[in-house]
Amino acid sequence: MQTTHKTAPKHGLAAGADLTPVRADWTIDQGWAHYTAQDHAIWKTLFERQTRLLPGLACSAFVQGMRALPMGADQIPDFEHLSDILRRQTGWRIVAVPGLVPDDVFFAHLANRRFPAGNFIRSADTLDYLQEPDVFHDMFGHIPMLMHPVMADFIQAYGQGGLRALQCGKLAELARVYWYTVEFGLLQEAHGLRVYGAGIASSFSESCFCLNSTSPNRIGFDLERVMRTRYRIDDFQESYFVLHSLDELLQLAQTDFVPYYDRLNHGPVYAPGNVLPTDQLLHCGDGSYHHPPH
Ligand SMILES: [Fe+2]
Predict the structure, then answer these.
(1) pLDDT reading at 12 higher than 80
(2) What does pTM read for this prediction?
(3) Distance 138 CA to ligand 1 centre (A)
(4) Digit-coded pLDDT (tens) for 97-120
(5) For residue 179, how far is its CA from the centre of ligand 1 (angstroms)?
(6) Please, are residues 251 and 154 in contact by the beta-carbon 8 Å criterion?
């Protein structure tokens, strides 16, 4: 994500009073027939640019998932067509929503293996700026990984955990887990670090930054550490957390977070760029991007 001064139209919750959901679960029709030639052209630009980057960047599960999906450069995918494949593979399906939806609605969808996806696409003059998750982020970034059984189970468990976290008042802590895994997670593979997070996989600039820049920290994933770490929503991440195997997500999916929430009532909250003596540090960032020397 990058900052910009452009003003994009607002969708979903961000649209405020301009948008009242027709259905209680906030789902809408994708309205595929209403996409314009310009919308499909923006998709094509994004898809081709990002696909060129994927070799040597995306983890093998992402690449395999993408190959098995009816998703190509020529047009914005039809959610129903993708869902046909996804449902057979991992039991998930895609439901269209107008943009960001209330937390309880979002979690309830995930807990029932429904992936809420924005049906709009960014404008041509804001290709690299993602103010809200759009159809490119949601389809290109998320759906290939949802073809993997571990990610499929993890995101469902996250939805169930989200409904509990709402009751415990620990949403911020839980959201950090999603952010540093599903959105911005890195994976150690045999030939080096690879991307599995959708926020990176769908971002042209961050996909290079997260693997190649000397600036960010790359730290072995630790659940409590991540729950205590704030994140950047306005720019590239200052720290990325690395899994040694996707199976770590399976363990997370089976972990009761409530004892963690109790511990989180005490102790520090870390800034996005902090490095701790206890970290399993793969790369200590020099901070040159976020904190350039004067
Ligand atoms: Fe996302």
Answers:
(1) no
(2) 0.93
(3) 6
(4) 988 899 999 999 999 999 999 999
(5) 8
(6) no
β-strand partners of 115: 94
Question: Which residue shows structure tokens 């094509």?
Answer: 44
How far apart CA 247 and CA 21 sit, in angstroms, is 37
- Ligand 1 centroid–CA 239 distance in Å is 18
- Rounded-to-integer distance, Cα 80 and Cα 78, Å: 5
Q: How far apart are CA 288 and CA 294, in angstroms?
A: 11
How far, in Å, from the CA of 116 to the mean position of ligand 1? 10
Q: What is the pLDDT of residues 250-275, one digit of tens each?
A: 999 999 999 999 999 999 999 999 99
Q: How far apart are CA 111 and CA 122, in angstroms?
A: 28
Instruction: For the chain, give the percent of residues with pLDDT over 90.
Output: 84
207/198 Cα distance (integer angstroms): 10
Q: Tell how far the Cα of 133 is from the centroid of ligand 1, in angstroms.
A: 6
Both tokens of residue 170?
């620990």
**What are the structure tokens assigned to 243, written together?**
């899994």
Residue with tokens 């080096």: 192
> Rounded to the nearest whole angstrom, what is the distance from the C-alpha of residue 265 to the centroid of ligand 1?
28
Residue 210 has pLDDT above 50, yes or no: yes
Mean pLDDT across the chain, nearest whole number? 92
Q: What is the DSSP string of 58-77?
A: B-HHHHHHHHHS---SSSPP
Order of strands across the sheet that contains 239-243 = 192-195, 186-189, 239-243, 217-220, 281-283
The identity of residue 172, as a single letter, is A
